[in-house]
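RidA family protein
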Amino acid sequence: MTQRDVVFPPGRQALYERNRYSPAVRANGLLFVSGQVGSREDGSPEPELEAQVRLAFCNLNAVLQAAGCTFADVLDVTVFVVDPEAHFETIWKIVPEFWGQAPYPALTGVGVTWLYGFQFEIKVIAKLPEAGRA
């Protein structure tokens, strides 16, 4: 069995252990980040949608940073949105705060009916920094 090279952001390991998944795994020069939601430290959803989206990006950035990456290293993004017709405009006005400049990563958007009490989730694949890069 292959040993997974898991990345944990500071202060959230108990949350991931309780829910039995890894926040991110390094493999073959890539970082595979599990879906990040706008969860508070205790795992509960941030109730207001705009704050929830911002917190999801902050949680994502904490995982990326723990692996030595930034959002600029992200190659592929998948977002999951409950009721995308109602929430897309609200969510998409926040995205530029975190997205950076073109060229943008590849994107897949998925409308879902349930996200464990959340309205938005983002998962990414990023390229890990090359050895020796600071």
